[in-house]
Write a structure and sequence with these properties.
The complex is a heterodimer of chains A (353) and B (534). With 353 residues, chain A is of the alpha/beta class. Chain A is built from 15 helices and 13 strands. In chain A, strand 12 and strand 13 form a beta hairpin. Chain B is α/β, with parallel strands linked by helices and 534 residues long. Chain B has 18 helices and 24 strands. In chain B, helix 10 runs parallel beside helix 12. At the A-B interface, helix 5, helix 12 and strand 13 of A face helix 1, helix 2, helix 4 and strand 16 of B.
Amino acid sequence: MVSFTPACPLGETSFRRAQADLSGDDPPNSFYETSFRTAQQWLQGARQPLVVLSGNLDGEAVSAAIRLAKQFSAILTCDEESTGSILGLSMQAAGLLTNTLHDLRDLSLVVLCGVDPAHTHPRLGEFLGRDLATDSLFLDMPDPLEALRWFRLAGTDKTVHIPTKFAEAATRIGVASSGLVVFGPEWLKFGKPFTAELLLWLKSLKGEKHWYGLYMAPAPNSTGVVETLLSETGFPGNLLFCQERAEYSPHLWRVERIIQQGASDLCLLVGQPGSFSEKTLALLSKGRTILLDPHQPAWNPPIWLPTARVGVEGPGRFQRLDGVPVEFRQLLQGSHPLIKDLLLELTHEEFQV
Amino acid sequence: MILIRGAELYDPAHGINGQVRDLWVNGERIAPAPSEPGTPDVIDGSGTILAPAGVEIHTHVAGYGLNAARRFLVGDPALLDLLTPSAETAAQRYLSLGYTTVFDAASSPLMARSTSNDLQRMVGLDRGTFTQLGDHLLLLQTLARGDMQEVRDILAWLLHVAGGYAVKLVNPGGGIAWKAGQPAPGLDEPIGLGNLTQRRIIQTLVRLVNEMGLPHPIHLHAGRLGQPGNADAFCETVRALDGQRAHLCHIQFYSYGQDENGSFTSAAEKVVQCLQEYPQITSDVGQVLFGAAMAISFDTSGLSDLQKATGKPWISRQLEGEGGTNVLPLSYQARDASSAIQWAVGLELILRFPDPSHLFLTTDHPNGAPFTAYPQVIEWLMSRPARQEMLKRIHPAGTRKTGLAGIEREFTLDEIFAMTSWGPAKALGLADRGHLGTGALADLRCYRKQTNLCNMFTRPEWVMRRGKVVVQGGQLAAPDRGGLVVVRPTWDEDRLPLIQAALADLVSVPVGDYGLGAAGQIGAEEVVCASRMY
């Protein structure tokens, strides 16, 4: 049996709730075991489980979650805030992600749209290196949609008077023979017109020159989660498994909608979700919710099972922004199981680590 | 021991053509009749046809290209399932069709872990992949410098770290030219690395691979894919091989003439005549069927041209230092002249080719059609009336601009098994399968005889893998793990640090993690390099 030290007041709350749910079984050997056994009972008894994947998961954890979702005829969705799956689809379908890291070395300008990869993606920041220091243009506009429209007009209609603050940036962009536009999810929170405007601007930039767009995925393995889902189910998430068949509906099986409509009686959060609304978190705190994550959550899930950190306490496979798989190795011996092992054990009668 | 009694046996490798005989299986392999039979398990084969299991030499069922294709198909689950099934499903469908050995057409070293992940999940089959090196910058830069020993070492090391079974070349140098904004290079035009040309890349690497004794020669996807009038360029590529051993894939897409309007015509006869001069060369057809398909290819310049011609959206995913894969949705329409010609050209090629153990049945799944269409293609090959009926239903260009209508040949069962079992096994250097000789693997397929050939080949009576029945009446038994097949070429260890240092300049992945890492394919069966069969 696993040895576990209760971590925090939140854990104690979880412990008490778990205890209350047990009725006359053998006394638990540890807090972790109790929480785990409750989670297992909840899962076995759920009529319509919901499994939610975050973008922090390694590939094997995603595979294990898919197997579990199939076994329990669950709804399987991604937390889109941390996987960016829909945007990823749009970008790739638009043919804009044709660059490689190698291609980026000789670009004449890097345009950073509200995101600095030196801070958010240190490896990419290191790779871009000199470009970021000397040949970058940082756009931190209060209204990015307005900025995009002026930039696009500046490129297509020379008769239009462009406000000075946009004109200077537009000129630098216009004279560059090649470049990279880096943007993150914060530039995409303005709804569909914004996404369309961004894609059109990138397309117009490409023209005869070498311009690339790079979407900074919001979580370390956003790409890998979606790729694993596509590879093993054919779909990027939003699935209902029913008798080994997968029904895909990007509109029907959206995570916050399911939770808020009460369409599921158990929510298994595989990895901490990116940014659920307060309303959703409140509902999750009251219902049967199990969170598997290495880090203590800032909210109050009924059951939180701490897990090993991939790349620190266990091995795992991630994928870079360009989809290249990268293997992480174990550096330290930890006391918690990997998520993939925990998911496997959740489907079994006995839990052994 | 298992005794399969009274089936009609087909074994092109040993000249057995429908004779009723008993076949003995001992453990995983075919055995001679024992002197004291004892009490074997008996399978009644009366009224059935027994043949070696199918061997797939060119299909796209693993790797990251499929995921790009799935992005186009998420809105049509039925089509997604047909064209880009998961690795597990693809393996099950191959087994259900009587295939027990399957080779994925291409994987690149950087994405080898993705391909390996899919291959690991294809349980129940023997499977492997070819390593695409046609745009590998380190390899081609070294080739341009002319250090042949270093090229050989790089080739061997890349094949190992990518977990590949053979070297694949896809329109070599075409991706490098495309990324530089250059048009697709011809055979003798520089690709952008000094004076290096496609001819030199092909000739040198084909020779090196043959000298290394790899079981399967270079698996070559030539240039000018799918363009009207490309047969001449294809034949020039064939001649550039100088009679060396090689495999040319999906040749239907290179067998086009061109009329005065620049439209497709058939050049199947010309291509067959050309290939017949080189018995060391094998090929597969890449048959097109009508309906939806999906172009999945490392041929960036080829698919870029196709994208411009069709105007359809595509996805091109390029990797640092080694080209990339591309996908483009396709649809072959029966009432479209070009599609009708492509359909007819594939069949014409097979029917004109005298030796079916040198030209194999593929659909280049899912580029021409899903592999599940093989039974339909077999019916057309074995039945002239079925072909004629089809010709009546499609665009008249299929009749007027190809020679298919005039061909009377109907394939025999023996020829079907030669082109789907013995021929591809031999081309892959897999001496232990594709035939019924003593000592061969007991990988077998058995069909209940019936007049509807398409039905017969769609649903084998049973399929045996390594002496165990894995499909019975269309139902799959719990499969075993199956095997991953790789080669283990050797290289000069003293030179490896220099190779790795050069690679470190081209890719941002730590060299120790490049491809599958130092161990190569995990859990793989080794195939000794000396098993070349001709």
